[in-house]
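Obj.: predict assembly geometry.
Materials: sequence records (below).
Method: joint structure prediction, all chains together.
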Amino acid sequence: MVNEKYQKFIREQFDELKRINYAPHFRVLAGPDDTKSNLDGQEILVLCANNYLGLANHPEMKEAAIAAIKKYGAGMGTGRKIMTYDIQEELDEKLAEFKSADAALVYPTGYTANMGSIWCVMTEGDTIVSDELNHASIIDGCRMARKTNRIIYKHTDMEDLEKKLKESTKTRETGKTMIITDAVFSMDGDICPLPEIVELAEKYDAFTFIDEAHASGVLGKNGRGTCEHFNVEGKVEVQMGTLSKALATVGGYIAGSEELRYYLYRRSRPFCFSTGFLSPGECGAALKAVEILKREPERVERLRDNTKYFKKELQDLGFNTGVSQTPITPVIVGTPEKAQSLSKLLYEKEKIFCGAISYPVVPKGTDRIRSIVNAHHTREQLDYAVGGFERVGKELGII
Ligand SMILES: Cc1ncc(COP(=O)(O)O)c(C=O)c1O
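Observations (raw structure tokens):
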């Protein structure tokens, strides 16, 4: 006998989701995530994966994962706080080097890296100043940082940030202050104004925490991220990153000082209360991804060329791509129905996959589909995609 109140609640949620027609079901991959993939039994051009550098199905990545499994086994055995594998320690070291930081610590996901570290670093009486469009994992991490003052500033608005920092100096007395921001905003693809943020942090006795999820492997000449892009290396105290996007595996990390790493190792809740960390195979593949990126920075250049080309073609057709400066290119259509129809027709008629996104993930009236090109898309594939957008956009009266 199932509890009635529980059942009613779940049914209401289910009906509402069906009503607004969020993805009718999960799209099922029956092979690797590539530019063209076997999705739901058909060959589909994928234009929404985070596999920015096309590494997810790279033969060397697969070989590295297999070699690590052969050497260490498939599972973890125990959590890192009890016994840590040398390959896990090596991954921490290589990521620190990649981010030009003294040390880094890997978490099971980017989500837990934010959650687990923000809560640890910010304690009673501290002040968190956060961009209004920060990722949910930052918001949740800030919520967990109890008894802190939490202040939101307008998206990338440096005047508002300064105003909020100035106002809060009156109340923040002894506690420390952290400015926290996505480096690349995951729904709009714009970049935070990091040099100005760092300057304001210095001016108002604050430190900076950036979420490099969509910046590592994407921004900077060598793909090292936003600090490299803006030439402010060494000026950001905490850099969070994820392995699940450009580095094409799974996991997140925090890069900063040796002391920070040790403190998180000892106190961060995902370390203290979970066995779940990257398994040897995942570590092997992630190490290989860092190595390939270092060896082949031209992948980042190719990603940039593809992004520039695709964005311009969409803009020339009259699509609204918002303020994007990165491979995340939204096509903003303004209503949930239009976003759903655009995504659906692209999929069904053109065999192109781009998901629709609506409120509450993005503000009302900015409903969109979110496209992402990667370094491996060929010009022919991009031209095909542009043609598909044009046909469907005209059919729906969007352009
Ligand atoms: C800006 C940002 N931060 C953090 C995360 C979480 O990373 P992960 O997917 O590795 O948990 C994401 C992923 O969607 C993200 O977009």
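Conclusions so far: The chain has two domains: 21-50+297-395, 59-295.
To do: check interface contacts against the pulldown list.
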